[in-house]
Amino acid sequence: MERRPIVLEWRKIKNFSKKYSEAEFIRDRPAFVRECLVAYAKALKRSQLLNEPQLPMTEYMRQRVKEWLMTNDTIGNWINENCELGENYREQTQTLYNNYTRYCHLSGTQALKKAKFNGAMRTRGIEPNKTIKINGKTTKGYKGIHRIEKYDSDLY
After folding, report:
1. CA atoms of 156 and 150, how far apart (whole Å)
2. Which single residue of 24, 78, 101, 125 could bond 111 by disulfide (Cβ 3.0 to 4.6 Å)?
3. pLDDT tens for residues 28-76?
4. CB proximity list for 140: less than 8 A, separation 6 or greater
């Protein structure tokens, strides 16, 4: 089978070195790379929803994309490593969020703010800020999850 190359147009930023200082660029590079990766993940999700033709992907490329998305899913990795899911599980809101932020700190990733964290949990079917009972006390918490990995910084 013969393959034809796909030509992508690439544009340079005119006067880049005059507009941006190299020191600032180097300082802000990690944030820029993270923004690019987040934008790439969003673009991949959007492209999966389109009915239009997409750039062809081999099975190997699909597998690499899937691995990349899984590797960069901090909440999914945290749940797999530190939590158990189940209908009868409950965990206090602040305790679970503290556990997540501690995991992010130890793994060198940026933790989501609480509102975005709650949204991400909701998309996984875990409802935040429900009135629940833990040890006979009524509190705000998550239904359907509890932590198995405990850190000293967690609230008890």
Report:
1. 10
2. 101
3. 888 888 888 788 777 777 776 666 556 667 888 878 877 877 777 889 8
4. 92, 93, 129, 130, 131, 132
Other Cβ atoms less than 10 A from the Cβ of 135: the count is: 5
3 CB burial (10 A radius; 0-12, 13-18, 19+): exposed
Alpha-carbon gap, residue 30 to 59, rounded angstroms: 30
Judge whether residue 154 has pLDDT over 70: no
The CATH number, out of the four listed (2.60.260.20, 3.40.50.720, 1.10.10.10, 3.30.565.10), of the domain defined by the range 84-147: 1.10.10.10
Q: Which residue type sits at 96?
A: L
Token pair for residue 154? 């967690």
CATH 1.10.10.10 occupies which residues in the chain?
84-147
